[in-house]
Write a structure and sequence with these properties.
Layout: H1 12-44, H2 50-66, E1 73-75, H3 81-92, H4 96-119, H5 131-153, H6 163-168, H7 170-175, H8 179-197, H9 201-204, H10 208-223, E2 229-233, E3 237-241, H11 268-295, H12 304-320, E4 327-329, H13 330-338, H14 345-360, H15 362-365, H16 370-384, H17 387-396, H18 398-413, H19 416-433, E5 445-452, E6 455-464, H20 470-477, E7 484-488, E8 492-495, H21 497-512, E9 516-520, E10 525-527, E11 536-538
Parallel strand pairs: 6-7, 6-8, 7-9
Antiparallel strand pairs: 1-4, 2-3, 5-6, 8-11, 10-11
Helix pairs in contact: 1-2, 1-10, 1-13, 1-14, 1-16, 2-12, 2-14, 3-4, 3-11, 4-11, 4-12, 5-16, 5-18, 5-19, 8-10, 8-16, 10-16, 11-12, 11-13, 17-18, 18-19
């Protein structure tokens, strides 16, 4: 039941009439957060700065009207920076503009696949990926974002484009930083850290990204970055500063529209980009939409299949005119919920405010320092790869930490797609080593019966792992709310962490929606650690 114990908000135009004030307010506050993030993600991805805003406008105005979610905000996300930048570099072969247009074409094809995935009900795609591998992938993305953006934050351009060498260049960039640019960058980073630590509710109401950009613009005026000049530091070092350290946008908004180039559609690099964009974008959308549902005070569940198709439609349109791919974005969606949004109209209003801003105040965007945007991304990257993520994984089990760490290293050493596949392979090897039969890798043996009216028992036999319980998830989704669901694992021989996490989460969600859920037989299984979500095997 909704935590507020009130009726669910109405949908469509009725919902707009009922909650337009709350949704309009939340949409405006989310717009303030989204604007700098859209610009920063675009530039970090090797796209023109307006690309992210094009995507967020389409995600708000169009996708909000056809999606299957309620309080989700759609737009570009930091998690896709690595995939998009890699595509631009590999397809462009040194020509940034050519790589950008080839990547637009790859996004168009990936979008078609996303639409088809939603139509063919692939909304449970995330079930095929073990939790530790997904967390490892996101942590690796965080490391790569930090490694690349630290250089921009201090006003230095790294010599290498290889990620390992870029990481190794960080000390050199810090030793040779541009003092004025670095001051802007570190000021932004300090603000973000302070905002994350403060308990002051009044300060928390002001979006930290907006403060970072505002302070950066004040410092930009003070340092006169609008004009090319040389500054002297410590009475001997000279540094060149000027407009190249500010966001560059065309005077005419229509000049920001670019069209895809399908000239490399028959190359391996093109299809590698398509698969990576489709896979990572779809996976992040599904994970984020599921996470946002848990934040919704009304406990509404998104239609993930419909949401995936809607995002695909939005991506198709965005890429056709020069935009980045979008996902259901967790940070902006969390802010949306916290700001009191009731319906998807908040997403719509956030898109409208972005569109109005770029139409009437584009000159303000040019005054934003790149170092401020880089600070936002460095902080975002750190949150993805925080030491807390390693600690949380270690508590669940040493094998989970091994999978998590190997996935990170594999992504850094190869690329995102290969790194994820290596992480999954390691997970499967661990399962086989622990005695999971080959026949159980893709097929789980279970029985689902309605033992009494309103009581459903799921009896699990043999091994239950991340790759074989998708069928059970689908059946559980069809059980009406308000029933009693019993998981019987007395005959199970092995349950991995991903399945344990799903069962516990299902129990919590189902109970929140007014049902009952219990687990029988866990006492006959031995956990690999003291954590409640640890993998278990028969004693």
């Amino acid at each position: 039941m909704p935590s507020s114990q009130t009726a669910l908000p109405l949908k469509g135009l009725d919902g707009l009439k009922q909650h337009w004030r709350a949704d309009l307010t939340s949409g405006f506050l989310v717009f303030l957060i989204a604007l700098p993030l859209c610009l920063g993600i675009s530039l970090a991805s090797g796209f023109p700065p307006m690309s992210g805003i094009i995507t967020a406008v389409i995600g708000g105005i169009l996708v909000s009207r056809i999606s299957g979610s309620y309080v989700t905000i759609n737009g570009p996300a930091a998690g896709l920076i690595v995939v998009i930048l890699s595509a631009v570099q590999s397809l462009g072969a040194g020509d940034g503009m050519a790589g950008f247009r080839y990547t637009l074409a790859a996004i168009v094809i990936a979008s078609v696949f996303q639409i088809l995935m939603g139509l063919f009900k692939a909304g449970k795609l995330n079930a095929y990926f073990p939790a530790s591998v997904v967390h490892g992938m996101l942590a690796a993305i965080g490391v790569i974002i930090m490694a690349k953006q630290i250089h921009t934050m201090v006003g230095v351009k790294p010599a290498s484009k290889d990620i390992i060498e870029t990481i190794l260049e960080i000390p050199h960039s810090l030793m040779n930083l541009n003092p004025e640019i670095a001051l802007i960058g570190f000021a932004g980073l300090a603000i973000l850290i302070a905002w994350s630590l403060t308990k002051n509710k009044t300060l928390k109401m002001i979006p930290a990204p907006l403060v970072v950009v505002a302070v950066g613009m004040v410092l930009e005026r003070y340092f006169d970055l609008d004009h090319e000049h040389v500054v002297t530091f410590m009475s001997k070092e000279e540094y060149s500063v000027g407009p190249k350290f500010l966001v560059a946008i065309p005077d005419n908004v229509l000049s920001s529209i670019y069209f895809p180039d399908f000239g490399k559609i028959w190359t391996m690099e093109f299809w590698s980009a398509v698969v990576s964009i489709c896979l990572v974008g779809s996976l992040e959308t599904l994970l984020s939409a599921t996470a946002v549902d848990k934040l919704d005070p009304y406990k509404r569940e998104s239609n993930l299949n419909k949401d995936l198709s809607a995002v695909g439609v939005g991506n198709l349109l965005a890429a056709s005119i020069g935009g980045l791919p979008m996902i259901a974005e967790i940070v902006r969606s969390s802010a949306n919920v916290n700001n009191g949004a009731k319906t998807s109209w908040a997403n719509f209003f956030h898109g409208c405010f972005l569109a109005l801003f770029v139409l009437f105040f584009p000159w303000l965007i040019h005054q934003i320092p790149l170092a401020s945007l880089a600070a936002l991304l460095v902080f975002t990257g750190f949150r993805l790869a925080s030491p807390k993520e390693f600690a949380k994984t270690m508590v669940i089990g040493t094998e989970q930490l091994a999978i998590f760490t190997i996935t990170i290293l594999a992504v850094l050493a190869t690329d995102l797609l290969i790194g994820v596949l290596i992480g999954i392979l390691v997970k499967i090897i661990i399962h086989l080593f622990r005695g999971v039969p080959l026949k159980n890798l893709l097929k789980m043996s279970y029985e689902l019966h309605e033992t009494n009216p309103g009581t459903y028992q799921i009896k699990i036999h043999g091994s239950a792992i991340f790759a074989n319980f998708i069928g059970l998830k689908s059946q559980l989704a069809d059980i009406d709310p308000g029933q009693h669901v019993i998981f019987d694992v007395n005959d199970a021989t092995y349950i991995d962490h991903t399945v344990m996490e799903f069962i516990q989460q299902f129990k919590q969600d189902y109970t929140d929606r007014g049902g009952r859920c219990s687990i029988e037989g866990l006492d006959v299984l031995s956990a690999y650690s003291g954590h409640t979500l640890a993998a278990r095997r028969r004693r």
